[in-house]
Amino acid sequence: MANDKEARHGGISVESEHLFPIIKKWLYSEKEIFLRELVSNAVDAVTKLRRLSSLGEYEEDEGAKYRVDVSFNKTDRTITVSDNGIGMTEKELDRYICKVALSGAMEFMQKYEGKTEGAGSGIIGHFGLGFYSAFMVADEVEVITRSYTGESAVRWVGRESGEYSLWDEGTERTRGTSVILHLNDEGEEYLSASKLREILEKYCAFMPVEIYLTDEESEPKKDGEAEALPKPVNDTAPLWQKNQSECTDEQYREFIPRSFRITASRSFICISTPIIPSISAGSSSSRV
């Protein structure tokens, strides 16, 4: 073994031009996971803001309605995931986006751990490699974000080469974050409402923030036609969070196929509910 007096110590560095091909080919077995990762990040952003509000460190607007929006545009070949959660400052964006695998969720929980019971509950992701799963289907990714603190919005544009640009966007944007994916040829298959809905229902069916899916190029309603109210693709209050006496037979029938894609009896659900939260909430292990 070498003597410490003669040893030279340092840290292992990884060049992004070599890292991104690994992420694209080996990080996940299925490309569709990118949507789960980005939506989970958006849900986390809302969960963090709610936590700050419960601690008295952020004053919510009266009647605030939190949501996550997934939209797509076939002409522009883009998919956008937006939230009205905590947002990021330029310093935070540089720290969490420009440095791969730095966990913002873990840092947040450590900072507020112990201030209230269950301080870290509901935080799904680990602000690290999950964000970069976007490059499995995109050759360029934009992040536009504004922090709840009121600091100026920031725009970040990253490319699969590992290069990025970052600049100030002023104070006109509202709080929250939008992630815009400029799809490559491999990602073009996801420019479909049915495909995106299928993925959202598969991985995000019971996430605790309402998720909406929109085709940016859908035809507007004609004069006189009633505008249908948008419905979230997920259920933020699943049956296991309710008393059995509050659940109707119709709710059970709707719940079974959505959660297990099988037909089961009512008694089966009562037995199975303790394990359901771990199935839904634990579907992501490494996210931005």
Short structural description:
The protein is of the alpha+beta class and 288 residues long. The protein has helices at 16-27, 33-54, 90-96, 104-112, 193-203, 249-260, 266-272, 276-281; strands at residues 68-73, 78-83, 138-146, 153-159, 164-170, 176-183, 211-215.
What does it look like?
- A hairpin with a 6-residue loop joins strand 3 and strand 4 (153-159).
- The two termini are 39 Å apart.
- A seven-stranded mixed β-sheet has the order 5-4-3-6-2-1-7.
- Helices cover 30% and strands 17% of the residues.
- It has 288 residues and is of the alpha+beta class.
- It has two domains: 16-216, Histidine kinase-like ATPase, C-terminal domain (Heat Shock Protein 90, 2-Layer Sandwich), CATH 3.30.565.10; 239-280, no CATH class.
- The protein has eight helices and seven strands.
- Residues 102-106, 117-127 and 261-288 have low confidence and may be disordered.
- The radius of gyration is 21 Å and the shape is globular.
